Amino acid sequence: VLQVPELEVIERHQHSGHVPYIQEGKDAAVAYGAYDFKFKNNTSNVIKIVMENTANSITAKLIKIEEI
């Protein structure tokens, strides 16, 4: 999300401790009913969010679908 200037982060909460897998200030903690990560799509495109996981990693992909 941070790599697409037109996607605006509107809610983000840092983890309470250091997370070694991402640069400080770029993490986002999510906890059901308490913390969320929300962003607004200010592009003229529909986007699809695809999540993939393995035993060692989680990958999020944002895919441009079409112009609105």
Could you explain how this protein is built, in words?
The chain is an all-beta fold. It has no helices and 4 strands. A two-stranded antiparallel sheet has the order 1-2. Strand 3 (45-53) and strand 4 form a beta hairpin. The model has no long low-confidence stretch (mean pLDDT 89).
Question: Layout of helices and strands, plus pairs?
Answer:
Elements: E1 7-11, E2 38-41, E3 45-53, E4 58-67
Antiparallel strand pairs: 1-2, 3-4
Query: What is the radius of gyration computed over CA atoms, rounded to a whole number of angstroms?
Result: 14 Å
Mean pLDDT figure: 89
How would you describe the shape? globular
Strand content: 35-45%
Order of helices and strands: EEEE
Number of strands: 4
Low-confidence stretches: none
Structural class computed from helices and strand pairing = mainly beta
Total number of helical segments?
0
For the termini, the CA-CA separation is: 19 Å
**Sheet with the most strands?**
2 strands, antiparallel
Residues in helices, as a percent range: under 10%
In the sheet with the most strands, the strands line up as 1-2
